[in-house]
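I'd like us to work through together how a protein chain folds, taking it slowly. We need material for that, and I hope you will provide a protein of your own picking. Go ahead whenever you are ready, and we will take it from there:
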Amino acid sequence: MKNEEIEENNIKMGSTKPQSHAVAESIERFMETRESYIHALESTVQLFKMKLEFHEKTETDIKQSLDEVFAMQRLANTISTATDPVSVLDSLLELTRQVVPVEESMIFEMGASRSQTKPFLSTCSDYMLKASQHLLEEGILDWVIEQKKTTVVPDLNASMAEAGQRNFVVVPLTLRNEAIGVYIIRTGSVRKAFTDHELMLLGILSNQAAVAIENLHNIRKLLDATEELKKSQSQMLQAAKLASLGELAGGIAHEINNPLQILLGHIALLQQGKDVEHRIEIIRNQVQRISQITRQLVSFSRSVPDELNHELVNINWALNEIIALVDYQFKNRGIEFDLRLSEGIPPLDSNKNYMQQAFLNLLINAKDAMPNGGKLIISTEFVNGKLNIRFTDSGSGIKKENLVKIFEPFFTTKEPGKGTGLGLPITRGIVRKFGGDIKVDSTEGQGTTLSIIIPVNRTGGPISGGNIQ
């Protein structure tokens, strides 16, 4: 039995040794696999970390780029909408400093011949003037304009110690693919410091400046045209005044002649020593009458200024003054005035000279519409914040088909030589200058009503004093 047990134990021992070896090999393989897995995991983590850092950097770069773009856009809009040269250059300089360091800069305009440069501002330094002339003579400006390419050029006037450290950046100003000048920047950056991105940004900014320059030129042209238009309008209004005075000349002469005849008669009686004190009083009154007519005539006929000067106008007084100038002619024609001027009318922020010209035009039209006499009702009233001035005649009226034409320049139904066709257009133009309008209501054979309607700011209160002109 013992031998059998020993043999059996030997067999068991022999079978255990191979089994332990297999376990050891499995453990070894597991350790190797674990090391590989850990290494792979570390590599994956490192890769993810790198990707995360890359994305974070990219996100930061994008945010910075967007901030830069938005800032550029805001300032570029400032440039392109600037209305004076100083603002254009200041905005452009502020933008330029966000791209490259700037010691000084200036825009230079060039004509089609490109024979000379003209600084955008008169404050340009002598150094920049000489630099632009030198770059022009060397053909560099022509090359930049032809190539439409931003170029870095060494500042040859810099000292030996600064050689290579001072440069000019020359940027073409392009508008609709046409170069109109250059933007020259003097900088302390070395040539290699400029990137293509920076040069591209400078080109974009300069193009915005080119738009601004064109806008300024257009504004100047518009202002010049406006000045010419103002002069033309003033001349036209003055011509209308003189034409009106020509029509009124007979009546005005009669208005002056009557008191003159009275004066002559009483002076003759005065020389005879008859009722001296009474004669002197009559003479004084007639002289005052002539003086008043002359003042009214001079006031109305004075030259119209190019600039429209606003003043507070007592409309009722302005109407009475102009009616006094035409009173004789209307009475001589058999036309009766019916004045319905409301009291407490607020002063109108307008211009007395202009408004009286408008009134005179309407008076003359009414007179011509009543060749056989009639009645002219003139009324004023203040209703719902608006001043209404109405001229209603009992004349021949206006044909329906002509109602839409009466405000057209040079349209007239009067006989040749008796009208220019400018009275109503000028009147409407005057009324619209003060924020109002003119309306017409007419029936052929029954008369016409022309109404001037102007909004009034009543902060100044109703008319009460004599200091309002």
Remarks:
- The CA atoms of residues 73 and 205 lie 9 Å apart.
- The first strand starts at residue 104 and ends at 110.
